[in-house]
Amino acid sequence: MGDVVKVGISGLGRSGWSIHANTLDKCPSLYKIVAVSDPIEERRREAVSRFGCRAYFNFEQLVKDDEVELVVVATPSFLHATQTIEALKAGKNVVCEKPMATSLSEADAMINAASESNRILTIFQNMRYAPDFLKVREIIRSGILGRIVLIKILWHFFGRRWDWQTLKKFGGGELNNNASHAIDQALQLIGDGEPEVLFCDLQRTLTLGDAEDHVKIILGVSQSSTIADIEVTRACAYPQNAWLIMGTQGGLTGTSTSLKWKYFNPADLPPRRVETEPTPDRSYNWEEIPWKEETWNLSRDHKRGEILFYEDLYKTLREGAPLSITPQSVRRTMWVIEKCREYCEKCST
Hints:
This protein has helices spanning 14-25, 41-51, 59-63, 80-89, 104-117, 131-142, 179-190, 305-319, 327-348; strands at residues 5-10, 31-37, 54-56, 70-73, 93-97, 121-124, 148-156, 195-203, 214-221, 227-233, 243-247, 250-254, 258-263, 292-297.
């Protein structure tokens, strides 16, 4: 147990309990939950009973716990920046849930605090470890689809929500919530250039709160011709596939559990030149493409992204490996989110 990372979790709600606590509990050789904080007494008692940890009413008590070396900030979004900065100043390493913050300035303050404290800050963009995303990235990087023209990421749902994540005052809304994952994935796929929001539409449709629950973004980056088309909505009664990739030598489509892609070798096509003479049979140009097609299906024994995230983080904390998800990389996602809001504000005036 000498090498395990001692963890304190702030917030024992849906994310803090169901994701982080459950995941860390599955990694007993790497992590041990030694403390938690939550204002709800029943949640604190449950954590003490399950983990044998200390439980605090407020966050200030948690970060004063000398045994805690890694703080997981899993509180509502509007608290992410203040709690992260406080934990870093207290000498703790931090895992902050997404969205990283509620503004770009908050994200920058968090990055500065990590630098000044010489502590590790990472953001729980765990969808970078999603098996379907990793396979899509592998296929794109292989080059078999040619130059990538368009990447569509579609997260379609239909239904109302009425929890805190539907309220602006808590940093809610689909842009901060689920779209932050889709934007982050898109940025990993379309390149390292400076992002550019080409179009954004934010609408409030079925939600009972005052924040948006329909997000449409067209995104590009400098020095790349690839465009990302992102839809995250609670108002789609006929959900489409999560993935659609268009390339000059093929394409890909599929879901989080099943993908298929087809491609061809340009050398297998006969040489062609532009012709201005009428076609003999008055037809359009057409040729038989020698397609090759492959498939991928999610295996039953795949390792969950949350586990992979914490395994990589352990290597950073204990073995000095490079940090897999840097706050600077997630800052690009925060930049896009802020520009989306500015775009829509400008359009409404």
